[in-house]
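#struct-help
A.M.: can someone run this one for me? Single chain, 484 residues.
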Amino acid sequence: MPEYDAAAVITWFRNDLRLHDNLALQAAIATQRPVICIYIREDGAPLAGALGAAQGWWLHHSLMALDRSLQATGNRLVLLSGDPRFVIEHLIETASAKSVFWNRRYDQAGIRMDTEIKSLLGDRGIHVRSFAGFLMHEPSKLVTKQGKPFQVFTPFWKAFEARFHPSDPLPAPARIPTPENLPDGENLADWTLSPQKPDWAKGFGDIWRPGELGALARLDTFLAETIEGYKKNRDIPSAGATSGLSPHLAMGEISPHRIWHATRIASGRHFDQDVAHFRRELVWREFSWSLLFHRPDMATVNMDRRFDAFPWSGDSSTLGKWKRGQTGYPIVDAGMRELWQTGFMQNRVRMITASFLIKDLLIDWREGECWFRDTLVDIDRASNAMNWQWVAGCGVDASPWFRIFNPVKQGETFDPDGTYVRRYCPELEHLPDQYVHRPFDAPTSVLQKAGVIPGKTYPRPVVAHDLARDRALEAFRSIRTTDS
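D.P.: on it. Structure tokens below:
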């Protein structure tokens, strides 16, 4: 073991807000020096690293949770603001620190900043080490035999299975040595990440428990109660059968290695297919980050460049109705209202609402990507962009454009008794099952008995789906022969 040295070391937390399975933190502790744990609100990031307002709420509570966990070890979290190059340089000078540790980022801006800081500190003789922890693979290493990034998920999945064996997760440290003169840092409340007036997130706390302990509890519950039947039930919006781990993964409150390892324990039972399907979802996230690593403009640029000429409608009125859940299609409206009320949307409904925006309303997929980014607590930079391009048909391994979801049939298939729709569209509560997904087809007598007044208590459809489908296919025909 190295001899104790009073000079402090710095652990820079980013999207790894946890103590367990945190390689950068473990390496800092292994030096046997006092550890300064910091989180920086970087210049140009008004939400302190959150991608949208809803995730800002989550980040506020996640940072509080991380600080509580650190205090239990005898340490605490130091909040700082500014350009990380200058913030860390100043901290090194004031604390006489000799080393800086962090877990890697994989977005272009983060990579650029980290590379520059590592070079600047290295020139000053400061030891810098970075570690993998946000992903189970390194995007620069998992490539095709030709050295190119994968463009299709199935070959990526097979390569991942063959070449990557995620390590067992590390336990959380019991004690973290602390410098005698730990910097005070800033007040989290001053960052105004959590909304005040109006508090549009007031219901989030009844649903979510941000932080590492919440993540571990969610994992335990999922494996004990929900994973059996996951492959089928995850498509049923009223079943609550998804893992609920995505917001915790996005903030790094739990590592993908920890989740992968936990599924090994669950495997070997009679629901192996469910475990395998869930693992594919984890690797879809890895695939998305591989694409973003190699295509950093994925959130704004069509991967299929033919779509640059696509005749989007740009109708701000229908876009607004889609955002508010006022399209007149119950499954779409229920999804958009769930999103606003909970910061979340069930995965099948995400596809339905996205398809409706893009193909029924002919509104640019980037508008939807932007709205989800601001309203989802589990927003993930890579997965959000990848999934929107997938639905639009302009990404790699994309759903074909002619796959246009019929919102009525989708509702009737996956919410046959209308449980989900009635939960978020209570004005339709008393409609019989056969009309709850098609109130526009209900006889006047049925509507009157249910207390539904078309255009008043519930909107009329903003578009006729059959006509919208024909319009979408015609729009695609206009670009499909364009050079890519």
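A.M.: thanks! Residues 224 and 266 are 9 Å apart (CA to CA).
D.P.: also worth noting: The chain has three domains: 9-133, 135-165+212-294, 305-477.
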